[in-house]
């Protein structure tokens, strides 16, 4: 009886020992997996030595006309394979690794050194650029990551008046910017610095009016001085910016610089009509 109990007790110990060691092995495997990071593990959790895409990045991208579009593509375990971008509508290969295979210089590849990123950059996007682009890896079979690009009509800021204004020293600079977006927040920049309404200069104020059709922002700088000269930019949120150059002059401003009614040379059409009328007058 004692022998049977001893054997039974020994069996229980062996079973417990097996369960504990098996559990510890599994824990070690989990720790080892965590320690090695995400390399070799696809987004669905399956371990693989083959290339695969990091699918956390969006497949639908929106931009506006003349803005920049960046289509993300991250390839894990690339190895010595080639990553290419193809435009789906005409099956045109645009890039292959870092090489560009199009004459359109607006396209380029963003690939930080030693990274898994192979992003397609499109500058000055146009409506014709809208459509599907595929990031491809030349495995067997080939794998691809499709990104859809939408290019909308851009909201655009506009500064009233000419692109250059001439202001007499000591007078008030008044710049008016309009943007066709309701409720858009507008910032003003002098050069690369945002205009500070609380600066020691003083005399800087802003007037804003918001309507159903858009937003108007008026920047006022009293007692203009030479340091106020330079490039001013109206930068709205969600729209393209506009710029104007301000010249602060000492003394009187020439008449031709004051208004848009300056005298310009006669246009060619006017000259032709004048010559024609003179010809008919002489032969009559």
TrEMBL record:
From its record, what is one biological process in GO terms?
synapse organization
Highest taxon listed in the record's lineage: Eukaryota
Which one Pfam family would you cite for this protein? V-set
Ig-like domain sequence ranges: 51-138, 141-234
Gene Ontology CC: neuron projection membrane
Q: Which gene encodes it?
A: putative AGAP001201-PA
Organism, per UniProt?
Answer: Clunio marinus
Q: Which PROSITE patterns match?
A: IG_LIKE
**Name of the protein:** CLUMA_CG012622, isoform A
């Amino acid at each position: 009886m004692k022998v049977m109990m001893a054997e039974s007790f020994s069996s229980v110990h062996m079973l417990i020992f097996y369960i504990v060691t098996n559990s510890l092995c599994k824990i070690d495997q989990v720790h080892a997996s965590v320690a090695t990071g995400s390399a070799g593990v696809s987004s669905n959790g399956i371990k693989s030595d083959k290339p695969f895409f990091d699918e956390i990045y969006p497949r639908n991208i929106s931009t506006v006309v003349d803005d920049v579009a960046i289509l993300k593509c991250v390839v894990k375990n690339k190895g010595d394979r080639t990553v290419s971008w193809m435009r789906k509508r005409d099956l045109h290969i645009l890039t292959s690794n870092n090489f560009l295979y199009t004459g359109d210089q607006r396209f380029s590849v963003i690939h930080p050194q030693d990274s898994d990123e192979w992003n397609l950059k499109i500058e000055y996007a146009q409506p014709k650029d809208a459509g599907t682009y595929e990031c491809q890896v030349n495995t067997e079979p080939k794998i691809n990551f499709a990104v859809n690009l939408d290019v909308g009509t851009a909201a655009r800021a506009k500064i009233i008046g000419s692109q250059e204004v001439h202001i007499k020293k000591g007078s008030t600079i008044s710049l008016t910017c309009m943007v066709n977006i309701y409720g858009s927040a507008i910032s003003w920049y002098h050069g690369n610095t945002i205009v500070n309404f609380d600066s020691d200069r003083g005399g800087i104020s802003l007037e804003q009016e918001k309507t159903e059709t858009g937003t108007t922002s008026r920047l006022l700088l009293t007692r203009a001085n030479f340091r106020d000269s330079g490039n001013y930019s109206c930068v709205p949120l969600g729209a393209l910016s506009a710029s104007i150059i301000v010249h602060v002059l000492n003394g009187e401003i020439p008449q031709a610089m004051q208004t848009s009614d300056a005298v310009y040379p006669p246009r060619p059409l006017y000259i032709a009509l004048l010559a024609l009328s003179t010809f008919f007058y002489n032969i009559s």
